[in-house]
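OP here, attaching both records as promised.
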Amino acid sequence: MKKLLATIGFLAAIIGGGFFAYETFRHKPVHGIIVLDYDKQKIDNKLAKLDKDAKKVQVEGKWQDDNHLLVLSKEEAEKLTTLKALNKVTTKKDTFLFEPLLQLPDQLPLLFSKDSAITITDDTGAIVTPKQTEYVVLGDSSMFVSHILVTDAADYQKFQTAPTIHVAAIRSDEDASKAITDYKDLKIQQMYNPDNQ
């Protein structure tokens, strides 16, 4: 019986030590969350609950659900760069590297996408041909927002029948992996690392 208790105690110590080591050395918290929803008030309510040290930026865009396309005016896209919410993706072997986009290119319309062959149409059915395509993602992933089209104000007006979607990028000291559950009632929520460098 003593051997059994000693073995159980030994296994508990190993499991506890392993968990402690993982939490201490392996888990690297990220401090950013990006949310999207059609209801601006829902996002406003979430942002009102943030601590005073949290940084946040809100933008408005148009959403084409069939191809997960977010359409932004240049002015709105520039707001996202202030919290490093747009990241240029490069690959090195099997590793993806993210570099914050701090300034938008001048050539508009501009497509941020891994897939440059996507066909984008405006309200009239006219095909929008980007002057430049770069592999840039919202946050650290293109899982929810596959493509971002950045336009000037006049071209943005050509997407008025598309539903308006509200985007918020949040940067706080809280670990996003724990805070993300506070946003589960919004259409899209994802973590991102605004400290990429």
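Record two, same layout:
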Amino acid sequence: MSKLNYWKLLAALAVISLLFAAWQHDRSAQYRRGQADKAAEISLALAEAANKQAAAAREKERRAAAELAERQTELEKERQDAEKSIGAMRLELDRLRQHATRQSGRRDLPATAATAAAPDGAESAEGWELLGKCAAEYAGLAETADSQAADLREWQAYGGAVSKQFKQPTD
């Protein structure tokens, strides 16, 4: 082989080596770009999924809060209705007390049957007085029961809203 061919062959091998190195460098750069693109795509998909999940959680919380507010409005209306009923009961109690007072002052109560004896005035007065006391005690108990029932309904509404918020959907 002549020296000239040797140098030509060596130059050709050098050019081929440079081309191979450039091609190899280009392939690794492409790989890195592809890897970076795929990582960015995965990150974007994860961010979108996290945003959707957060939006769903916010919507669920908003619905639960709206439901609770609606239920509290209903409970407030029920409480106001109960207060109206209590007021009406108090008026009726006052009328009953007035009637009991009037009846305890009367001495001439008629007998309801010929064989029935009319109670004496003291027993009649005590009976009306006892009825008035019982009615007052009952009114106080009813008021307490209404208050406790309203509180219970409010806590049940709150508990229902909270439990729905944390309930996992079943597919």
